[in-house]
């Protein structure tokens, strides 16, 4: 059992920063992928994890507005 809840609290904080009222329609897969990228960084992810994240973003629908 962890002696501290700080790591869990950091994850919830990261999730709340990513999933805002303006971005409240993120799917679970997209939110998980963004959290992994933010938490681990691109260099720390395995090739398999990176490929899965890229596939998630490839499946996203086109947006009508330029970001």
UniProtKB/TrEMBL annotation:
Protein's organism: Dreissena polymorpha
Domain of life: Eukaryota
Protein name: HAT C-terminal dimerisation domain-containing protein
Domain (HAT C-terminal dimerisation) ranges: 1-37
Organism lineage string: Eukaryota, Metazoa, Spiralia, Lophotrochozoa, Mollusca
Stretches of the chain forming a coiled coil according to its record: none
Pfam families: Dimer_Tnp_hAT
InterPro entries per record: HATC_C_dom, RNaseH-like_sf
Gene Ontology terms for molecular function: protein dimerization activity
């Amino acid at each position: 059992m962890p002696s501290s809840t700080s790591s869990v609290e950091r994850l919830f904080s990261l999730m709340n920063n990513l999933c805002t009222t303006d971005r409240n329609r993120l799917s679970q897969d997209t939110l998980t992928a963004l959290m992994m990228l933010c938490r681990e960084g691109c260099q720390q992810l395995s090739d398999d994890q990176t490929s899965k994240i890229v596939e998630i973003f490839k499946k996203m629908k086109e947006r009508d507005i330029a970001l």
